Amino acid sequence: MSQNITTEEFEMDFDRYIENIHSDLAYWKLVDDAGAPLPDQIFRYSNRIFRTSYRIMVLKGKRGRLASDEVSPTERQAELLSEYDNLLDLLEPLLEWLQVMKEDLQDLWVARIRGDEETAREIAEAMESEPGFF
After folding, report:
1. 100 and 48 Cβ atoms separated by less than 8 Å
2. Is residue 134 part of a domain?
3. pLDDT tens-digit map of 16-68
4. Of 49, 41, 36, 33, nearest to 106 (Cα)?
5. Whole-model pTM?
6. Helices within the chain (DSSP H only)
7. Rounded Cα gap, residues 100 and 11, in angstroms
């Protein structure tokens, strides 16, 4: 028994969704600017990675179901697929950036724990020169 899917099921306020992502980024920057011990920063990045990965997973699932929908008007379906692609184009590089930042923080923490101040300084300088996502 096949399930009928309606386009309405895939409708959402895409602009608001993007605003929410920007709000998250602004909040994360505010939190990061406040400073915290490295283990806390690493933990925060782990949470951000999880949250962003979850968003991507949900959007890809919805996009996949929408792409296989043969009932919806093709014009609206194409518009919605484009909107989902735009969101994924925003979130996927964000996820990659978050993963790099977490790895850099972990490397910095390990260098400091080992007492390797030279490596820690190099990592910190490299992190400061990396373009931010915020």
Report:
1. no
2. no
3. 999 999 999 999 989 988 888 999 999 999 999 999 999 999 999 999 999 99
4. 41
5. 0.86
6. 14-34, 38-67, 74-113, 117-129
7. 33
